[in-house]
Design a protein that fits this description.
globular, single chain, N-(1-d-carboxylethyl)-l-norvaline Dehydrogenase, domain 2, alpha/beta, Rossmann fold, 12 helices
């Protein structure tokens, strides 16, 4: 029997994951609210552009207002701003003995899903770059997926990891997902807001000494907050973040795509979460606070660039 996968989301990463799983033989359905994406995917499937070539996959697609199929694996890949809306639907869609899995950015999504009734829930981190070029058309930069495995659902997490491997993803299971969450958060807090403010692809952030200095400072602040919480995310978070920039140089970050499309961003669960955690711990986070404020106001242009050198030089 084919594994049944229901994915909440019709954006870049949801399309990529859904297409890969479908191509390997899973029965995949995407669910969302974006009418244009639903109609395009229903008519033409999903088209994926990778370095190795371009390919297509067919998946099922439903509007959230329609009845949703029961699934063995329910993946939550919506933006954090939509988590509360889909959480009850996701909890109801998990088949007996199934697994609900959040592969979302930022902090706090799991608590929202649990509050809505998710009791067979695991989290994962998708270190993937993906740009939505059009509804159902995605350009991807492959990476890896790291899954946490709570004891109550460990067997099902291993089952899903095997499904990922069969689909061509590089996956791993971590005994403790928390350091991975914060390493991803450091990269997100450094890259996403800067790319959104300056309206550039990831790689362009290394072309400006001021932007690079801000990027590095933001990542270091995240590491300091993590250490304040007793979380060791490794000695070289800046080098790891710069590596992400280089590997996804041609990618347009999800926050940049949101700003350009006039959609709400995930700044509150990224830099906003770091600022709030830092304040509670007495750890200062001035760079993340600046980026939070700028994205909230969606300001851009030369005035921001001019402010960077003096700002990052502050102790």
């Amino acid at each position: 029997m084919k594994p049944r996968v229901l994915i909440f989301g019709t954006g870049a990463v949801a399309c990529f994951v859904g297409a890969r799983l479908s191509r390997s033989g899973a029965e995949v359905t995407l669910a969302g609210t974006w009418v244009e994406a639903i109609l395009n995917i229903e008519a033409r499937g999903i088209t994926v552009l990778e370095d190795a070539g371009t390919w297509q996959a067919r998946v099922g697609v439903r509007a959230l207002t329609e009845p949703l199929p029961e699934a063995d694996f329910v993946l939550v890949l919506v933006k954090s701003t939509q988590t509360a809306a889909v959480a009850p639907l996701a909890a109801q869609a998990v088949a007996p003995g199934g697994l609900q899995l959040s592969l979302q950015n930022g902090l706090g999504n799991a608590a929202i899903l649990e509050a809505a009734g998710a009791n067979r829930l695991a989290q994962g981190i998708a270190f993937l770059g993906a740009t939505l070029l059009a509804p159902g058309l995605v350009r991807v930069f492959s990476g890896r997926v790291v899954l946490g495995a709570p004891p109550a659902v460990r067997d099902r997490v291993h089952d899903f990891a095997r499904l990922l491997a069969e689909s061509g993803f590089i996956g791993e299971i971590a005994d403790d997902l928390t350091p991975h969450v914060w390493r991803k958060l450091a990269a997100n807090c450094a890259i996403n807001p800067l790319s959104a403010i300056l309206r550039v692809q990831n790689g362009a952030l290394l072309h400006s000494p001021e932007a690079r200095a801000t990027l590095e400072a933001a990542a270091r602040e995240v590491a300091e907050v993590a250490r304040g919480k007793g979380i060791d995310i490794g000695p070289d978070v800046v080098a790891a973040t710069l590596d992400v920039v280089r590997r996804t140089a041609d990618n347009r970050s999800s926050m940049l795509q949101d700003v350009e499309s006039g959609r709400p961003t995930e700044i509150e669960v990224m830099n906003g979460a770091v600022v709030r955690e830092g304040r509670a711990l007495g750890v200062t986070t001035p760079v993340n606070a600046l980026l939070l404020d700028r994205v909230r106001r969606q300001s851009t242009g030369p005035r921001f660039e001019d402010a960077l050198p003096s700002f990052v030089s502050q102790p």
